[in-house]
Amino acid sequence: MPAQANPWRSVAVHRIGVYTEHGLSPGLVEEFMKAVREVGCRNIVDPFVGSGVVAVEAQKRCLPFLGIDADPWSLILVAAKTRPLDYNALLDWTLERFGSLEELEPLVPSPRLEQYHTPMVLAALGRLRRLIEEAAQEWRPLLLAVLGRVAAEYSLLRRSPAPRLRRRRVEAAPHAIYRDFVDTLRRAIGDLRGHKFCGPVDLVWGDSTAWLPGRVCGVLTSPPFANNLDYVRHTMLELLWAGLARGSRDLGWLRSIQVPACEAAARAWKLETRHPWLQSLAARIGGSRAHGYRRFLLQYFHAMDKHFELLAERLEWQAWYTVGDSFLGGAYIPVHEALARLAREHGLGAETRLLGERFRPGRRLYLLILHASG
Question: What pLDDT, in 10s, does the model give residues 18-57?
């Protein structure tokens, strides 16, 4: 059966903010957590934490968790879902400040946002952003997560899953945007009130191809799929509104530290894999974009190779990765098989399992399970 783009889209806490397809289905997460309990693993790591599916599920099972991501918006979103707050105080303060919201000077962190919102919408969102700047520090991740949701609703950008510009104007009166902000905040707080903030959640802004913690008992993650999907662009609107990027230069810098899963993230200075069998695989790619596809794919495999090298030194039990296959320039790229071979070359045991079809018909999703050596 075809997979949903994201099965957590309607699940409490997770739905505060979700990313594109990643393959971490509820059934698979439960299978992993059951195995973790059976082996007594007390240290779960997600080196590509994304929107925090594993973080939320580990926390409510009282399991210590560490999440790593090169995209700083991911850390804000996961913090919003996993940091308990005084929700009554937050909501009371927000509602009280709404009485004078129109008096606030709009705060628009990036001039680039003018491309994605009409002037009236931009001003309304800017006043909400100014409000967040006045909020207590511990409240800001949740308020920014809510603003990101609302800004996306009233933006010319749409995700399918890659962002594209809408053909129609997206207009709304300020009071409607403010009402949506409060309604979205109320729903998020309602979800969080029912969440079990049991296990500790630590978050690291970093590149897991260059850094992992000294000990890793278990890993559950979905690394970037090598499908020419720009993950920074996918969160670009939120990055701009949060003030984590001011424009193209900052966005380009963030692309430079992520695993190159698209042409936009490839760089002339980044190393490419030297494995002849991977170079032969990339050589199958044809078409007018062959050069760009080959370059990012070879850089992608180099980055994942370095990640597995680190993992092999630190893994104590197992690491589970959901991996999507790819079609680039008319060539089928069995990414799951390539990653399994790279892991084996570092002494890790590796097995793959077909999970089913991906969201895009004709493509498949696999589970790669790595075992600690020895």
Answer: 987 778 999 999 999 999 999 999 899 999 999 999 999 9
DSSP conformation letters of 11-22: STTGGGS--S--
Q: Which residue's entry shows tokens 């320039």? A: 329
d(Cα 81, Cα 239) in Å, to the nearest integer?
A: 17
Gap between the Cα atoms of 261 and 52, Å rounded = 20
Residue 65, strand partner residues: 44, 201
Give the whole-angstrom CA distance, residue 344 versus residue 296.
22
Does residue 216 belong to any structural domain of this protein?
Answer: no
> Residue 223 carries which DSSP code?
P
Host domain of residue 163: 85-191
Per residue in 162-200, pLDDT (tens digit) is: 566 776 778 889 999 999 999 999 999 999 999 999 999
Contacts of residue 279, defined as CB under 8 A and 6 or more positions apart, other chains included, come to 273, 298
Residue 259 belongs to some domain of the structure: no
Q: What pTM did the predictor assign?
A: 0.95
